[in-house]
Records
---
Amino acid sequence: MIRVTRSAIIDAPIERVWAILRDFNSHTAWHPVVAESVIENDEPADQVGCVRNFTLKDGNHIREQLLALSDNDYVSTYCILDATLPMQRYVATVQLKRVTDGDRTFWHWQSTFDTPRGREQEFADLVGKGVYEGGFEGLRAFLRRRPGAPAVRTAGSETMATQGMVVSRFGGPDVLEARPLEARFPAPGEVRVRHSAIGVNYIDVYIRKGEYRMIEPPAPIGMEAAGVVVDVGDGVTHLLPGDRVAYACAPPGAYVGVRTLPASQVVVLPDEIDDETAAAVMLKGMTAEYLLHRTHRLRGGETVLVHAAAGGVGLLLCQWAKALGARVIGTVSTDDKARVARAAGCAATIVGRDYRFAAALHDATGGRGADVIYDGLGQAAARENLEALAMCGHWICYGHASGPFDRLPVESLGQKSATFSSPVLFHYTAERAALTEMAQRTFEALRQGTIRLDIRHRYPLSAAAQAHRELESRSTVGPLILLP
Amino acid sequence: MIKVYTSSVIDAPAEQVWARIRDFNGLPGWTPFVAESRIEGGLPSDKIGCVRNFRLKDGGMIREQLLTLSDYDYQCSYSILESPLGVDNYVATLKLTPVTDGNRTFAEWWAEFDCAPDREGQLSRDIGQGVFQAGFDSLKMLVRR
């Protein structure tokens, strides 16, 4: 006998979820694999004993009978009577429970059945992933559907004309040129998004210069944006036209009005996160999330050195690390930025443009040094970083604003039993489950006020070159966004 | 008889959360309101029938008896033998269920008890929010990934 269990949290009150699930014939409306369904003999869909007779989109045909229904316990039990699939003795139970913390719903879906020897795994996956996990996503999308939004994708496969900022050849800010571009109709697994705000990141500068060879000019750059779903390709179950969404992912190409990209990298925005905040926070917020929770699990009481503490990622690191109980020391280039960094939670700041900070850090820590260094500087600060590190400290280099390392100082790490990490966001977000978790934790941190964004730098998309110039001049504070 | 029910989602696998809470003598380690605790008679803290005798940070003493403990269901229940709460027939259950979507934990904590009718509202809030939800909030911090 095979037992399959899946469970999920649905972000809606239990009454709302149950109103849908108690209807034994509602699955055509929300389940992505169900094509057509009728209740036999015109019986009501909440009549215990009634039979739903349905076809799947892959052509299979199933008859299922409702065995038990309890509005008191939020439980529905049903079995397969006959099916074109080789499954026997299939009995499934859907159970909902109230999550009082946040008025959400816990959904538990379990079944037992038999299938021909040797095909157990195939059918366990079919049921667990295809039916149950697919059902969770389908119901979530159904609950998000706005009145008036098309239930299925709009007809037509036409390409949409748009404008974008393209790197014409590798070089300075002026190689960014406005050009007409096209966003094609989404292929299976893709989504087309109309951008409302686009985030600017230092990685865009590296790519524009050709230091990170992630594009071949002429091509648009940009790693993150927020907007609204225009249409979705086949097989996309977690998004619907009209959904407010955001993403931060490779390959580059976000400096455009409308973009077609893999749906797996796109997350739905909670109502309380506005588009500008989302565009500014996806890459930097999820970067801070993994740096503080994954690359290093920051513990209360640790001393943290954050470079560029008034920068986009730096400010988030300072706020979040302090909330986690760490003592945060930041390096900044000006007194103005030092004030901003202290307001974000830095217990002390070190001001300078010459990458000399180790002595000041040792003074500030009684000679102990930093347990963790969040380093976006790279080569010019390498020697000082090693010096600033405490015994058994963790040096995390997530960017190279001063240039890539000539040579990794591996042997010098031994002098302090130090750990060196060179993390990349897109490796952490490659799995959809991890991406969702990172995005949710970032949104939650915004909601709770753990991190706050003060967006002071907005530019029209066509002024991307100016945004780059100001970012590179180190005169900006906090995030920069482009508005198409 | 009134029932208080509190549930939450904890961002860690169920076995990890269970390891934190299965010790019937472990309240001081994960709740914000218990100062110290001991098991009476030197019994192991996972022996059914054992009694935990603990002091709240506000000074109150409570004695509770372990009624059930299941490592298979991630569930335990207990009754109050003595407390300053003014409740009778108090039986509480704490249960964890894995959430496969995201590898998290659905945590439930409920109690049934009798009390003076005019104290039902206040006690429900004190127990549901002050004890159960506060315990969950504390767990969320402790097991965060």
---
Amino acid sequence: MRTPALSLRSIFGLIVGFMGVLALAQAWVSGEVHRSHAYANQRQAMERLIHLKAEDLLADLAHRAGDLAASLQSGTAFQQAFQARDTMALARIMDDQFHDYYVTTGMLKLKELAVYGPEFAPVARRRDTRAPDTGDACVPLLQRARARSGPDRMKLLSGLCEHARQPYFAVIHPIGGLRLKGYVVVVTDPVHNLAEMERMLGMPVAIRTVAGATLYRSQGWSADPASAGTIAAQHVLDGIDGRPLVSVAAVENVQALMGYLPRVRFMVMAAGAAVTLAAVGLVLWVLRRTTLQPLRVLTDRLQQIGTNRALLGQPLHVGGSSEIRALARSFNDMNDELGELYGTLETMAFTDPLTGLPNRNRLQERLYAQLRPSREGSSPFAVLLMDIDRFKFVNETLGHSVGDLLLKAVATRLQGALRGETPAGPGVAGREADLIVRLGGDEFAVLLPTVADSAAATGVARRLGQAMETPFAVGGHQLRVGASIGIVLHPQHGTSVNDLMRRADVAMYKAKQTRAGHVVYDAGFDANSLRRLTLERDLREAIGGGQLVLHYQPKIDLRSGRVCGTEALVRWRHPELGTVPPDEFIPLAEQTGQIRALTAWVLDRAVQDCTGFRKRGHDIGVAVNLSAVNLHDGDLCEEVKQVLARWQFDPAALVLELTESAVMADPERTIEVLEQLRAHGVGLSIDDFGTGHSSLAYVKRLPVTEIKVDRSFVRDVASDTGDAAIIRAVVELARHRALDVVAEGVEDAQTYARLQSLGCGMAQGYFIACPMPAESCVDWLDASDRRMPSCSTA
Amino acid sequence: MIRAAALSRRLTTWISAALLACSLPCAHAGSPQDIEGASKVSAEDVFRLFESTPGLVIVDSRLADGPSSGRAQGYIEGSVSLPDIHTDCPALARVIPKKDTPALFYCNGVKCGRSAKAIILAQQCGYRKLYWFRGGFEEWREKGYPYVKH
């Protein structure tokens, strides 16, 4: 179970609140302790007060009793009677004392008077006849007085004593001044005097014996002195022998104090609560200023960055505590780095590293933005998709580095063209919103967001095409490449990015196919383009997957009528589309770079089949067609060598055919490659001779062994004297250079006969035999053996 | 220089006068610690002296007239009242028989100067055996010794 996360503010609030409650509890407890202490202190103070007052009162009593004794003995009558030990007279004099001033005014409650000799021999004794007998109440006091010696015997001695549970206070006073003659003992009732305490303290007082008998009690004395609102304290007075005799208790009314204490407690609690609240408020305020607010700013910024990347790298100024400032500094540093990183990533994500142009992602982003439903209506725009003609050729023949340089040059030139510049110099005002991107490979695309009709789009396409016409000087080469541009318009040709791009692609292929330069998309293209895309997709699988087959068309020696060779012709049996003609898939293979694999396969299979033919006794060769692209394949010679070695095939029996136009695309290179091939003993043939505007100067230099006259010259040779003259010239040329001449497309007997009469060496065509699979060809060869003898090798 | 010396001299005179002015009332306010030629005694010594010295005269130097006078508070039994203000050689001669009769003087206590004054007068009159109970009646009563009071 997870504890719910609390905010910093709540946590601090709880802590401070908890501390506040603790402080209140402490205030309450200390208040209680203080109160009980206050009571205890008050009680102690009262006990001390009672003690002091009791001592004062007894000292005062002793003083008065002493005065009484002094007064008694100073009389001459007393002195004479005492001297004479006249007991009667002394009794009379002492009786008078019971009516003395002190006694009659109540200052002294005289209970007994006694006179003793110097050694405490009793002389006379009188007591208050109305009171109980005091007995020998103060024997211990007398014993102590008797035990004294020296000047101490002259001192006054007083103390409490008890008889019949009644306390008395006695004073022993010497008689005779400096010359000790005896003692007067005065016994009084101390309760009366101690009760004075009520008046002195202003409190109700109770005087009791230690046994509990009440001797005196004030009127205000409450029945239960320990009841609420009062503090009771007492002091016990000891007798002369040290035994506790009398307790004096007082009760103080502390109702006011008790009423005051809760008020104080309430005020302390209220003050505590106020201080706690103030502390909570202060802490929260400080926390808010130093921590929470800056943190809020930081988290807000983090959330904003989540939706608005433009804020990346923008510094944030935050106050608060040093820790928060440090955090903000780290945040800013990190934000800076992230901003830079994001910029770099964005650049990388949306830029083509080779040309520096925006890339496919940028185009898609712009297209999506353009198609966004929130935009007003569906604003028309145009997309141009461009492919560089013969780029793969350049790439494969001159290497990727040259290809890359060419792409850069193309990018620069396209940009210029889009801005209205010509390769010669800057042009007029550019179109800022136009976007040119490199999609990858040799494909470029242009978004024209303000172009609404095909005329304007075509205008831009034409300008781009023109810009590409000037040869590119790249890596020491003067490269002439063209461009095929497909044009789509929104919304006529599609309303989704996918549809528009796919159809632009279709239009581009159409342009390439028709060599039209640029083509505006048309709904009719789709069927063709679909077949083309399917073929392109399936070709690779076809080469390795047994869908390709070779057909062989025999060549006849016109002089002997014998079969002297076969031309291998490739056929594609597509599992869904049926037989695909070579005119359709060979260019595809050339464009998609699969021609090398295709040629290698054809070469191998043709040599293999021909080996089979030769093993059956047919001493014939085989001719294989090369593509212009094959000439630039550095491995061609090696490939041929390997095939020959693999089947232990006579090189002279292999003829490699090359169209005249292929030769003329790069004659120097062709001558170089052909010479290498010739060095291996392989026969070489110029195919479709007469269509490629070949320079005879080159033909002279070509290391070929055979010339195949194009069918266009052969078809009407029987009737057209011009064609016949050409063939005759070719035959003448060949004879001079000891080359074989093969006439293609021989379809009837007249043509066959005419060629024989013109001196043409060999013929090939439906009249002789259609192209046929290897098995049929073997049968045909077997049959032909019976018809005519085999031709001699050239 | 002359003016400074004169100032210094005058200052010295002032300070001396001030000290003198202070010392006079101070001497009046109490009694000296000791009086030369007189023996200082305590309350207990009074008893012993009384027992060992027959003919000892105890002189109470306090005023005796009126209820608030010193002697009215009480006095040591057997003492003779001779207030210091009335003390002179003839008066002394009336209470002390001879010049070598031992005589003890007391008044209220240490704050009272009357007994000291009387002793000095007695010395001047030629009395030779003089005792001074400096603690006086206060010490006597404090220690709980009996006294006479009318």
